[in-house]
User: What shape does this take?
Amino acid sequence: VRKKIENSFAVTGFVGKDAEIRQFTSASVAKFSLAVGRTETVGKESKRVSAFMAVEVWRKNESASFELLKKGQMITVRGYFKPEEWSDDKGKRSRIVMVASEFFATPEKDEVPAEQKPTSKKAKK
Assistant: This one.
């Protein structure tokens, strides 16, 4: 039995700089960096480790909307990994591009939606 391997990701981060948008005949692509981070603990010390990921989003021109892709905007991106290969004066090269199939603004973690806010404390029975 072969296991199905999913090529997908979901990540939240901050747009590193305004997206670079290129238009073609029937589609547009927005390329941007996404700053993602995590806290690593070594012994008793914790430090924030960040990385900038290259992301691209393709849209048909009539539905292209890239307003959210501005520097500093916190977004969640879902998509898949796409390998790219090319040759240049250094020989054969390759990289993995994160292709976003969807992206949306992410509320800050300390903002709790109204329906999830704890109501008055109920007496324990």
